[in-house]
Amino acid sequence: MLRLNKLNFTIAALAMLAICQPVFAQKVVIRPEAAKSKYTGSIKIEPMDGGVKIEKNKITFAPKKEGKTYLISGYFNGQLINKTKNTVLKLNNAFLENQNGQSTIYGEAKIELSSTEGSVNYIVISGSNEKKVAAVHSKKNLELGGSGTVYVKGDTYHAVKGDDVKLKGSGTWYLQSTKEGSGINCKNFIVEKDKSFNAWIIESKNAIKADFTIKIESGNFFMFNNATALKTDTKKDDPKSPHFILLNGGKFTVSGFSTLYKTEKDAFKNKGAKIIESIE
User: Fold this and answer.
1) Which residues share a beta bridge with 113?
2) Rounded mean pLDDT of 4-26?
3) 50, 173, 195, 270: which has the fewest Cβ within 10 Å?
4) Beta pairing, strands 69-77 & 44-46
5) How far is CA 126 from CA 81, 94, 130, 159, 271, in A?
């Protein structure tokens, strides 16, 4: 009887341990090839108006007015280029890839990348390029939002790159670069108050790398197997610009990293963020 009690206790204890395992112990892997077969239809864009030009391996968005929203679904191999400020590309079960080593989504003007609720989307880049190319690359500012799920895999260098990069919304983002690149590479990284997104940034040299500043007010971040979680340049890189990391909120679950942050001396301030660390 005693053995049975011990056995029951052991089973219960192991079950409770499994339930209580911290989220950073979960192994997250982005496998676009395994998911691609589900996206059988060719790309569909709504509205299909005069602001959209489709070529064999390139789609150009150049609406006459700013703030135009295009709903994108289905499969496309090539590059999507935005030429008009504040265009919104809203993904609705889309698989977008570029096998030629060029950015899959490229913004010549400020762009917003969004997703519909319940949708699962992929943005993938592969091939070779001597330049440090990102799967999503804006020459200007970039906003990432929406309420669906987006996987971004940058097999050439970065996952996401822009000037000021703003993360918002209530969706889930999975970002992975190479071991030499960054999940997010930018000049300034910004998250405002009351954002409830989940951002998984994995298997990269830097999870978030900003030339100047990182300012976060909210959001949920899961950073797994990155050499550095949060990084900015310093005065040695650019003596004329401010360099700091300011966390006024948000939750950070970080695992498998070498350094939590790198920035200017005494320029890291945590004024309200919750940080769960596990160096493994």
Assistant:
1) 89, 144
2) 39
3) 50
4) antiparallel
5) 17, 17, 13, 11, 39
